[in-house]
Amino acid sequence: MKKNLTHLQQLEAESIHIIREVVAEFENPVMLYSIGKDSAVMLHLARKAFYPAPPPFPLLHVDTTWKFRDMIDFRGRMAKESGMELLVHVNEEGVKKGVSPFTHGSALYTDVMKTEGLKQALDKYKFDAAFGGARRDEEKSRAKERIFSFRSANHRWDPKNQRPELWSLYNTRIKPGESIRVFPLSNWTELDIWQYIHLEEIPIVPLYYSAVRPVVERDGMLIMVDDDRLELKPGEKIEYKSVRFRTLGCYPLTGAVESEADTLPDIIQEMLLTRTSERQGRLIDHDQAGSMEKKKQEGYF
Amino acid sequence: MAHQSELIEQDILAYLKSQEEKSLLRFITCGSVDDGKSTLIGRLLWDSKMVFEDQLAALEADSKKVGTQGGAIDYALLLDGLQAEREQGITIDVAYRFFSTDRRKFIVADTPGHEQYTRNMVTGASTAKVAVILVDARKGLLTQTRRHSFLVSLVGIRHIVLAINKMDLIGYDEEKFRAIEEDYCAFAAPLGFESITALPISALNGDNIIEKSAETPWYQGPTLMHFLETVQVEDDRDERPFRLPVQWVNRPNLDFRGFCGTIASGTIRPGDEVRVASSGHTSRVARIVTYNGDLEEAVAGQAITLTLEDEIDISRGDMLTRLDAPPLYTRHPEAHVVWMHDEPLQPGQLYLVKTATGVTPGRVTAVQYAVDVNTLEQKQVATLGLNEIGLARLELDRPVSFDPYGSNRDTGSFILIDRFTNATVAAGMVLDGPDEAQKAHLSQEDSPWAPRRIVLDAVAATNLNVVDLTEEKGLFLLDLARSIEEYLEKGNRILFRLRDLAQLEPVAQLAYDKNLAFEFDRNGDGVSLLLFKRGTAPAKGYGDDGIGI
Description:
The complex is a heterodimer of chains A (301) and B (549).
Chain A lengths: L6 H19 L3 E4 L4 H14 L8 E4 L6 H14 L3 E4 L2 H5 L4 H25 L3 E3 L16 E4 L27 E4 L7 H11 L10 E8 L2 E4 L14 E6 L10 E4 L5 H10 L17 H7 L4
Parallel strand pairs in A: 1-2, 1-4, 2-3, 4-6
Antiparallel strand pairs in A: 5-6, 7-8, 7-9, 8-10, 9-10
Chain B lengths: L4 H6 L1 H8 L3 E8 L6 H11 L5 H14 L16 H6 L6 E6 L3 E7 L7 H8 L4 E7 L6 H12 L4 E7 L8 H15 L6 E6 L23 H7 L12 E3 L2 E6 L2 E7 L4 E2 L4 E4 L5 E8 L8 E2 L3 E6 L10 E3 L6 E3 L3 E6 L10 E6 L2 E14 L6 E2 L9 E8 L3 E3 L10 E5 L6 E7 L11 E4 L6 E5 L9 E3 L7 E5 L1 H8 L4 E5 L5 H11 L2 E7 L2 E7 L17
Parallel strand pairs in B: 1-3, 1-4, 4-5, 5-6, 26-28, 27-29
Antiparallel strand pairs in B: 2-3, 7-15, 8-9, 9-14, 10-13, 11-12, 11-15, 12-14, 16-22, 17-21, 17-24, 18-19, 18-23, 19-20, 19-21, 23-24, 25-26, 29-31, 30-31
């Protein structure tokens, strides 16, 4: 009897193949761990790829110091459970200058704390390959990115000069100082991610599930008051609403959605019945069409 | 149509269960610049409800600003990802798009039709199982249509959808549709596709994309979406001999030694005997280890970890195979090579050859000929330049396990990497052996005392014909069927691979008898010989007149 693999089995096998290839061909790989649902799936696939051993590379979190507290707790728990080393990098220069999403605006803040922070960490540890959880369906400029995406010594991405990528034969050659960003989830969609989390019972940060949380309405988004650093503007007031998050980032920049979905099937149901794509909850993509492409060329993940 | 909204609302668990059995289809779309390719894909995404509200808002704004539809929704803008492309209004690289129905998840490789981007098409086609080839109903087949068809056949795609677009602009004329369909089938016959399905569509109006169009009552076939959802592309990978290129040896402690890799073909169970292609050592499978528990059986496409009963030396680069069906294990593969870089191929120069089992230094010793992708003519060349395709012979520093590309894409493919720039400069597909279908057919009349008589009687007209005589042990005589003579008279050439000089005589005799010429070439460990008819005009090129052949 013929056994055709399902779409999730095929996606899983492709991702595991990619992760193993990196470990076999690079000296010093790292997995960028953003604590979100895509990172959760990527970490799960890495654990599968090397079972019964733990994945033979560390996790790296570029901490902007503005992550949700729940995310930080979850980060520690997953590192422990997977038996992997967890590296946390903060751009201390940015902290010294007091860069925050409130004082410097989301664009500069993201550039300093995320993009600069990431480059610092990659340079500091001399990683030659970094796994990221980005998916091609997230955003238009990602649709043309390779699975093995070449970065110059300055971490720049050149969309006009990408290496052709055929079959499952990945060109992993780089010169000293250059690096490769690897996206094992390239061919997954948001729906695939959720279905897989459901099927494999992968733990995710509780913020994805609906609960009554303190929020303020700001620029048309619901921002959660996660600690006392969020200063209320005139006219703003804290309300308690049943909300959850479709994506997770820095709490002052991540919009919550009002929702009653407090189980995984409910979340998937809600996602299928709503018609708003997930990056909308992130302030940084709103500036202009093509803004993500610009950020990527400059080295943003 | 895309999602069972009612089931989602009423019983999400039942819905999720039903989604677990979904299959995956990768396909490629190819078309010329104005064939409406982006509009077609945009329409598929749109109609399968994979465009979300905020994307829609951006699309409406963009349509007004830079759209080509006079402010109406321009579906093509859903796809053009990079700013430069938007400004030029053309797609310049391979983009991957995703949509999903209740039966299947689809991954679409959207590739440009421009000549200089042959490499992008080959890239996009390398993982695809179906090609949707767009034709403008007003223009019919163009040179590009033929080029795309040749390229997708070369890369091993067996199913073609001929989407005859802009039917609205020819008044849904059945006769014109049928004429294009017939032209195409005649042209494509030698390419050996398993199926060709012609569809009358209008991407702009949505005719026969998801729903059957009221404008084409004469058309009884499937809509595009229906075809994509139901086409059977599952190959017989599971039935082919077991192949596991070893990607990584997992050795967390002295008690565990696991061999990790993705099964390229066949199936495996604990207790099965396996052989290491390089050393010939054999053992039995002890366990198939996974995070979710040991498996009773693993099949082609799965990424697995095996442990063996015996301690034998296996490392990355080896291939585990079934005992009785070993792969080719050679330093001298012959392959179709697609050159993908501005710097032309340097015969004799060392490149890195990356295959399913790892990286081996190697060089191209000879380019036997190049194929003109527009006319499918062969030409004698010393090297290959950007976007040129040819038949080449390689010499690797050490033997590597291969299967013919025709029987296994994963173990029959390679890429060439420049050692100095690290650029991916070429893609290669290892040639079928002489016993494979679609190659020169050797028929024989055996007789115990006379030389074997070999009649070349069914050279498939793919213009990539090779007659391999290296396995012929005894004496033989050659003869040509009349169809092959006619084929040579049209300016086509046939390449013979000979074991040694002793085999030269029967080929020379054949050339003498039939008044043919040949060119002789010694390379690596063999001899090759190109047979052709002197003084004939080359096979007539296809005019780009839009009418057809």
